[in-house]
Amino acid sequence: MASRRTTTGVLLASAGAAVAATAAATTRQRRDALRVADRRPVAITVDRSLAEVAGGDGHLQGPLADFAHQVKIELQPAPGDRGTEIRVLPRDGWDSADAPDRATIRRAVRETRQLIEAGEVMPPDDPVTRRRTLVSGPLEAAVRRAGEEGRL
Amino acid sequence: MRALRWVGVNELEVGDVPDAHVENPRDIVVKVERTVTCGSDLHLLGGYVPFMRSGDVLGHEFVGEVVEVGPEVRRHSVGDRVVVSSFIACGGCWYCRHELYSLCDNGNRNPAIPETLWGQAPGGCFGYSHAMGGYQGSHAQYVRVPFADVGAFTIPDGVSYERALFASDSVPTGWMGANLGGVAPGDVVAVWGAGAVGQMAARAAQLLGAERVLVIDPLAERREMAATHLGVEVVDPTSQDVGGVLLEATAGRGPDVCIDAVGSEASGGGVLGAVDKAKQMLRLQTDRPSALRDAVYQCRKGGSVFVLGVYAAVVDSFPAGALVNKGLTVRGAQMHGQRYIPMLLERMERDEILTEHLATHVLPLDEGPRAYDLFKEKKDGCVRAVLRP
Predict the structure, then answer these.
(1) pTM for the whole thing?
(2) Contact check, Cβ <8 Å, B91/A113
(3) Is the ipTM of this complex over 0.90?
(4) Burial class (CB in 10 A: 0-12, 13-18, 19+), A77
């Protein structure tokens, strides 16, 4: 009986270890995938022709232009009447010392699109919390980053 | 100014908030004359959409008078009577150019939140949580309207505030369900839900030429309202076999177009309905999809299901098998109001679309919490509670 218990215990422990190892591997793979994704350009599509996006002097206008000395900005027509694709990468990669923060670039591309398409940038969401609730802390953190993070 | 604020789960209060004012050149400020409760507010009220801050002003369906105009506004002047689309759209992006206004790329100030939830961000909406832009809502004395030339529409002289109010959201939502659901002359259309949106979807189906329109709702007073004011056939799911009635009405084919105008708070009966409620309470699913399940199941082969009811995130037991094996088209959307409102106002002026009966209760703003109690609990036959700030 004792031997059977020991065998069962070993099997359970092995199964637990296997699940833990699989979970760890999956997490590692996901983390690696995210790390690769974070090294890709920040990209956005603007519903205007290449000429309109590039501006008369061939240079992009708007908040993204402020980073022109730090980043490479690639413009190309989007397929099927979808406007112009903008891709942004730091000149020497995301790991370089003078690379801007990825979140900052995300905000800049969103605001650039707003400025070109809508003519104005919406003021940021204003914190008006009067009382703490269960979700107010995480929500405030999410709202603070709501123009920077996400899947863009 | 005074406003009705969400202060916690199932807690509302009326209090003072900062005045609305023009912040951007394309804004107007509207003095709110009528603003109305909506079923989608109940998801916010009950905490099922956890993106509300205590103090947020609710309300997205409203009419009023223009009192302040930004320097780049061309279509509106102080004193205009306007109805405003509940969804906020810039008018200049790819989605607006294709009349998919609720998908606007620039209307939502907090795009990362819905991108994380749904993969992409829809446009913004008044008073509809920080996932939809964090805009203050219309249950207030005044409201700021961004992109006013795109989203605010002058009400024709022959249309009252009472009628035009529902052109802000309920009527275009219903119209969109019938229109994008593909209703065509000769169709049989089934609508789940006889609230304001369901009734307006049924009316739209009639106006688009449907041969028969059947509306399904467990509440007797809503069925009676739909039958009396619209002349549609009604079905009581608590005492009738919905599938049997629909098969009989279509001689075994099933409805050509099925519209879910119920959404996340469906009160489906039976074991599955109870399981849905339990799972939602335990936060194992965010929404109860019994009306959607039924619409997919009852629809004819090759038919169309349009989802107007609002869903927050995920549902269980979705009948994917019926969807694939019957070759259905399932489509949904938040409403593209800017696409439909001018046409709907003309129809209202010609008395083709009547909405006054939907406002079963009219209360002052200070009674906002009571209005939501009446509306949420469906007390006293409440279909919609209108507030007058």
Answers:
(1) 0.90
(2) no
(3) no
(4) middle
